[in-house]
Design brief:
The structure is a single chain. This protein has one domain. The chain has 117 residues and is of the alpha+beta class. Helix content is 32%, strand content 12%. A three-stranded mixed sheet has the order 2-1-5, with no helix packed on it.
Amino acid sequence: MSMTESERTKLRRRRLLKSAAAVPAIFVLPAGAEVANSSLNACVARGFPPGTQTPANPIPATSHDQWVRSFQPAGPNDNPPAGNYLQFVDGKPVATASCWNSVHPGGPFADGQNLIR
């Protein structure tokens, strides 16, 4: 009994699907550097709209905000003054401790107040 054109097409499709299913697939997950870079892009302030100001630097040692900062004691003659200074990645400030910690997995680590201790 001979096959019709439609039956032959179906048979070819089945063979093609079976062949495709038999080929091993390799899925590539991003490596640590790529994950860190995507975190960096999501977390680091990449510029501010025109007319806005960058975060204040420094703020008093008793204060904290959304920006990752570290305490620096006063310099000679209180210049620069003591306070919590912005910490930068690629010249840009970083918002929130979780973002900082994701792009600095080896430390130094920021705490819940976005301060590096």
